C-alpha cells in the first residue's frame, strides 16, 4: 500500500494555560518512512504523538496528504491511523482475539470479511498467536504491549503512531517488534514511534526527531543527528557515538554532565 505524505507545521499544545509543545515544524514525512521521536524524559515525545493522534487540543497544521487531521471526526481519523498508547487500560474483560476484532470493527456496522483470519495473521506476525483466546487481564506487561501493537496494526492504516512499543519487552521481542515495524514502513506506510533506546532508534529508523522542552532540537538521519555535541546538549552526558562491526550505531556514555 502507499500512503500520502504527513506534514506538520506550527503544531502547539497547551495544558492548563501552559504551552507544552512550541510550534513543531517538520519536513514532510513521506510514505515508507520510519520516524523515531527521541529525547530525555519530559521532552514532549508522547505529547507530540498524542497530538498527532487527535487526543489533545492542538493548534497548527497537521495533514495526511489532503486530509486535515485536526479538523476531522474521530471516525474519519481512525480510518487513516492506528495509535498504540504506552499501556492498555486495566479491567478489559475480553480475550486477545475479542479486543482485536473490536478494534477492527470500531465505528463500523457489520463484520469485516475474514476478520478472524486477519486478527490471527497480525498475532502471528508478532509471535503471539498462541495468546489469541487468553483473557487480556491474565497477560504480562510485555504481552499486553504486543496486543496493543496488534490493535494498532489490525486495520492496516496508512499512518501508525506507536508510543514506546518496546519498553516492556525482552531483547528477542524488541528485535521482532522493530523488525515488524520496519516492514510496515517498507510496505509504504508512515510510522512514527517514540523510543528511549537510542541504539534501537538508530538501527531501525530512517529519521530521528530529537525533542527537548517541547521543541525540536534536531532532525535527520541517525548518522548525522546523533553526535557527541547533541548528546551533551540534550541528554547532559559525555558520550561517544561508535559504529559496531555490523554497522549499527552504539552510544557509549562515559559520564553525566
Automatic annotation (TrEMBL):
Matches recorded under InterPro entries: AAA+_ATPase, ABC_transporter-like_ATP-bd, ABC_transporter-like_CS, P-loop_NTPase
Keywords from UniProt, A to Z, are: ATP-binding, Nucleotide-binding, Translocase, Transport
UniProt domain ABC transporter: residue ranges: 6-238
Q: Name one Pfam family in it.
A: ABC_tran
Single GO molecular-function term?
A: ATP binding
What role does it play?
Part of the ABC transporter complex HmuTUV involved in hemin import. Responsible for energy coupling to the transport system.
The name this protein goes by in its record: Iron ABC transporter
The species this protein was found in: Pseudomonas fulva
Amino acid at each position: 500500500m502507499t500512503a500520502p505524505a504527513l506534514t506538520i507545521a506550527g503544531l502547539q499544545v497547551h495544558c492548563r494555560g501552559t504551552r507544552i509543545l512550541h510550534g513543531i515544524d517538520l519536513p514532510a514525512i513521506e510514505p515508507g518512512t520510519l520516524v523515531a521521536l527521541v529525547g530525555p524524559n519530559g521532552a514532549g515525545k508522547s505529547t507530540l504523538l498524542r497530538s498527532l493522534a487527535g487526543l489533545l487540543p492542538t493548534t497548527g497544521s497537521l495533514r495526511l496528504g489532503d486530509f486535515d487531521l485536526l479538523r476531522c471526526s474521530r471516525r474519519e481519523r481512525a480510518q487513516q491511523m492506528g495509535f498504540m498508547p504506552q499501556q492498555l487500560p486495566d479491567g478489559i474483560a475480553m480475550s486477545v482475539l475479542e479486543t482485536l476484532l473490536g478494534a477492527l470493527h470500531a465505528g463500523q456496522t457489520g463484520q469485516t470479511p475474514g476478520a478472524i483470519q486477519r486478527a490471527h495473521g497480525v498475532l502471528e506476525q508478532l509471535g503471539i498467536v498462541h495468546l489469541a483466546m487468553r483473557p487480556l487481564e491474565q497477560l504480562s506487561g510485555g504481552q499486553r504491549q504486543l496486543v496493543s501493537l496488534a490493535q494498532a496494526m489490525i486495520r492496516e492504516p496508512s499512518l501508525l503512531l506507536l508510543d514506546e512499543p518496546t519498553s516492556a519487552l525482552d531483547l528477542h521481542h524488541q528485535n521482532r517488534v522493530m523488525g515488524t515495524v520496519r516492514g510496515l514502513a517498507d510496505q509504504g506506510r508512515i510510522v512514527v514511534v517514540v523510543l528511549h533506546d537510542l541504539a534501537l532508534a538508530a538501527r531501525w529508523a530512517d529519521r530521528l526527531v530529537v525533542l527537548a522542552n517541547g521543541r525540536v532540537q534536531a532532525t535527520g538521519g541517525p548518522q548525522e543527528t546523533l553526535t557527541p555535541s547533541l548528546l551533551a546538549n540534550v541528554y547532559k552526558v559525555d558520550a561517544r557515538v561508535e559504529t559496531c562491526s555490523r554497522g549499527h550505531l552504539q552510544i557509549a556514555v562515559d559520564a553525566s554532565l
